[in-house]
Amino acid sequence: MFDFPHDTGWIEVICGPMFSGKTEELIRRLRRAKIAKQRVAIFKAGIDTRYEEDQLVSHSQQKIPSIGVRNAWDILAHAKDADVFGVDEAQFLGIELVEVAAELAGDRKRVIIAGLDTDYRGLPFEPIPQLLAIAEYITKELAICVQCGNPAKFTQRIVESGELILVGANEAYEPRCRRCFRPPDPIYSVKNQLSLTELKK
Ligand code: ZN
Known about the structure:
Layout: E1 10-16, H1 22-35, E2 40-45, E3 55-57, E4 63-65, E5 67-69, H2 73-76, E6 84-88, H3 96-106, E7 110-116, H4 128-134, E8 137-140, E9 143-144, E10 151-152, E11 154-157, E12 173-176, H5 190-200
Parallel strand pairs: 1-7, 1-8, 2-5, 2-6, 6-7
Antiparallel strand pairs: 3-4, 9-10, 11-12
Helix pairs in contact: 3-4
């Protein structure tokens, strides 16, 4: 993948839409670190109880034990426990994760973060955009568009707005390419956001 730096920490980000294999790639990297006899700590935002507690589980049923956390600061409490830190569903941990990741990397830890880079409206989903800016290594995964088979960058919500949606309810979303993606309210589309910015100047 890449040559690891020596005598320093660093940040890796694995981003993309739902169903793009982010968790699977995260598990793959963490497994290899374990095989290399490194101490690994794995965290998952507490809000995601999609599958079993205390495990990262990919859509293809790959599993690895994990610690549920409610906020990014909870991760720092484990700073002494490991050399490699994995974080899944990072979009639920808020902007504080940027500071936590930088602090761990500054403390010579390897930090691997997986999460959605855009939300169901197609807009940048913090904290991933800021993490991309400060990371050494970035992997952008794409899913397959269920409508046309193109590489899919977007997460389409396929239930009516106003309907209650459980976070991580996979049946409420599907991957779509740029051509097939339909944002719920066009006012929120990236194109319109940019033109609104122009108007404000
Ligand atoms: Zn498509």
